[in-house]
Amino acid sequence: MKNILITGGAGFIGSALSNKLADEGYKVTILDNLSKKIHSDNSAYEALRSKCNFIIGDVNNRSDWENAIISQDAIFHLASETGTGESMYDIFNYSNTNISATALMLDVLVNTKHQVRKIVLSSSRAVYGEGKYFCNDHGAFYPSSRDLKHLEKNDFDFTCPLCNNTLTQVATDESSNINPSSIYAVSKHTQEKMVQIIGESLAINTVILRYQNVFGPGQSLSNPYTGILSIFSTRILNNNDIEIYEDGFESRDFIYIDDVVEASILALNYQNINGEVFNVGSGIATTVLDVAQQLKNNFNSKVNITITKKFRLGDIRHNFADISKLKTILNYHPTNSFESGLRKFVDWVKSQEIQEDNYLKSIEKLKNKGLFR
Fold it and tell me: Are 7 and 81 in contact (CB under 8 A)?
């Protein structure tokens, strides 16, 4: 497979993947609308247009799809609205971009002559919701969303419903329960099912990649919904203090962009994984408080870090990936630790123009809609 279409190919993950594939000799076509929300300038477009066929278009436009799939062997479908908090009030936009656009892609593939034989879909760890927990006496549990009553009492952890002991977070594998707790998560899981169903009916191989918290150079520093590393970095560079939600011990699985690209290309090239779902992460949980402290140290900053005990509805407590399936089947092994990746990320951030800090504006929106307490 040499002709590759990448939707959202000018985005954070998409641009890194597009560059890598083009450098390895693939003929890459990018379909991207260069949304101002993600692209504060045209730097991604300028960097990619010399090595890729660039279609400035929209995944919600049928003619753009019909044009983009011509002569393509495979599609990386990355175009998506991201961010759990924003999805809880921008519901139509998230559903339209993530669900309807995917439906349109599949509709075009069903009703148009083409040579596409593989779809790799970028999904998210968000589909699991809280993921997998363990009680020493009663085994595995998959808790539903935390209720408002407990959150308002600063009771952030889960307890066993049988013995009331605190549950221990464990790595979430691909067979774990699907339990989305945000509109974003619902939209990603819907994408997964649609792609698998139509892929099977059309004899198109499909692979679902559930990315964990991806970070690295190229991440948007102006969008307050793109992840805590960029949010915290922009706060620090504007000399604004960092606010930590809950108690700071909520954790995530952070995976460096180069490792994500490597796993994605492995998924493209491996032939015997039709219909498979893979977690793509580091397999290591890192607390939000640790992230903030390491960023502060790397920037040599004197900003304050405050544990606020505040919370956002739709946020999860913990989730980190079991990546044994990806290691076993695709021989994937992440090569960048969080610490080494963070140093490279910070070096890149320091080379960028300091962006306006829109964090407080984003929180005010959540507060006005009753989603932040």
Answer: no
d(CA 76, CA 208): 10
**Active-site residue among 26, 94, 128, 184?**
184
User: HSE (CB half, 13 Å, CA atoms) of 220?
Assistant: 25
d(CA 274, CA 50): 33
Over residues 312-330, the mean pLDDT reads: 92
pLDDT class for 134, splitting at 50, 70, 90? very high
Crossing angle between the packed helical segments 228-237 and 359-368, to the nearest 10 degrees: 120
- State the fold for domain 3-368: Rossmann fold (3.40.50)
Confidence label for 282 from pLDDT (cuts 50, 70 and 90)? very high
Q: What does 214-264 look like in DSSP terms, one character per residue?
A: EESTT--SS-TTS-HHHHHHHHHHTT-PEEE-TTS--EE-EEEHHHHHHHH
Condensed to tens digits (0 to 9), the pLDDT of residues 13-52 reads 999 999 999 999 999 999 999 877 666 566 777 888 889 9
Q: Do residues 129 and 317 make contact, with C-beta atoms less than 8 angstroms apart?
A: no
184 as an active site residue: the answer is yes
**Which sequence spans correspond to the domains of the chain?**
3-368
Give which of 98, 132, 99, 323 is closest to 210, Cα–Cα. 323
Q: How far is Cα 191 from Cα 292, in angstroms, rounded to an integer? A: 32
Count, in order, helices (H) and strands (E) of the chain. 14, 16
Q: Which residue is listed with tokens 């924003």?
A: 86
Q: How many CB atoms lie within 10 A of CB 271?
A: 8
> Taking CA 161 as the corner, what is the angle to CA 159 and CA 163, rounded to the nearest 5 degrees?
80
Cα dihedral 248, 219, 352, 347 sign: positive
Residues whose CB is less than 8 angstroms from the CB of residue 323 and which lie 6 or more positions away in sequence, other chains included: 171, 279, 280, 281, 282, 283, 332, 334
